[in-house]
Automatic annotation (TrEMBL):
Protein name: AraC family transcriptional regulator
A molecular function (GO) term: sequence-specific DNA binding
SUPFAM superfamilies assigned to the protein according to its UniProt record, in alphabetical order: Homeodomain-like
Alphabetical UniProt keywords: DNA-binding, Transcription, Transcription regulation
Organism domain of life: Bacteria
Cited SMART domains: HTH_ARAC (SM00342)
Organism whose genome encodes this protein: Phocaeicola plebeius
Length: 286
């Protein structure tokens, strides 16, 4: 398509900026690794072209297929490695958004079973969504960037999700952003990179330790102590493997009294020294 009067669109005060656009096209060259930005936003991600590997937590991976979409909840730290040149379409939204005027995302909580796991769940695009995204991408590439257009297309997208997928499928897909205590969950996730002990977390939450532990167990279905230890392992290993921080800076960041304690931590949980982890990571990236 050809966008007429393009300069008028771009100069309009309602033209979407980086901070308020709903849809974003993202290109990743072959062999490149991208660290996630915008941790405070939830994204619905569609793989339009290419081949990627999503790395998350300590050593977990999943590989979305072409023609599928997956959910990237806010405060979820991931790394994306492009095995081929890749194009992604990202759609930002909030947890209180509605699938239609009579059915909110949070109502999907009633369709979650006890056996539901927290691994990423991908939805295959039906014919309706394939056509929708094809036209949307053409319009975005031509420069149709009115913020109202973005918002209308997001509403249309969620209406198609409501119409074309079962509530059980949608509950699996949106599971990471469903729940009764979302404010507490967001608080924990936002602070999990800098607080690693239950006592300090409870103080920050203005709760007793027992109350915090109870809320945590209800929200994450896991003990706070174990969950925080796993997050510390994840962040320490990520910084060793992907950052340019020195080992002494990493030790200070994660409250190790010395680099020797960092060495001990890594040997205990990863079976390798920080030096070995970094060397191995360099060999895997370009």
């Amino acid at each position: 398509m050809t966008l007429l009067y393009k300069n008028e669109h771009i100069s309009c005060t309602n033209y979407a900026e980086e901070f308020n656009k709903v849809f974003t096209l993202m290109e990743i060259p072959e062999g490149h690794t991208v660290e996630r930005r915008f941790l405070n936003t939830t994204f619905l991600v569609i793989l339009l072209q290419g081949d990627i590997e999503i790395r998350y937590e300590i050593d977990k991976y999943f590989t979305p297929q072409l023609g599928y979409m997956f959910l990237l909840p806010k405060n979820k730290q991931i790394t994306t490695f492009a095995r081929k040149a890749t194009t992604l379409l990202l759609c930002s939204f909030t947890n209180d958004l509605k699938l239609c005027s009579r059915f909110s995302i949070q109502q999907l909580s009633h369709f979650i079973s006890e056996s539901t796991c927290q691994n990423p769940y991908c939805l295959k695009l039906d014919i309706r969504l394939q056509s929708f995204f094809s036209l949307l991408v053409d319009c975005l590439k031509e420069g149709l960037g009115c913020i109202h257009y973005h918002q209308i297309k997001r509403d249309e997208l969620f209406l198609y999700l409501r119409a074309g997928y079962t509530k059980e499928e949608l509950a699996l897909f949106f599971y990471p952003v469903l729940g009764q205590n979302l404010e507490f969950k967001d608080f924990v996730l936002m602070n999990s990179r800098k607080i690693f002990d239950v006592k300090h977390f409870a103080l920050q939450a203005n709760m007793s330790q027992s109350t915090f532990n109870r809320h945590f167990k209800e929200t994450f279905n896991e003990t706070a102590k174990n969950w925080l230890l796993l997050r510390k392992q994840e962040f320490v290993k990520r910084d060793i493997a992907l950052s340019n921080l020195s080992f002494s800076e990493i030790a200070e960041k994660y409250k190790f009294s010395s680099t020797s304690y960092l060495d001990t931590f890594c040997k205990k949980y990863f079976g390798k020294t920080p030096k070995e982890i970094r060397k191995e990571a360099i060999g895997k990236t370009v």
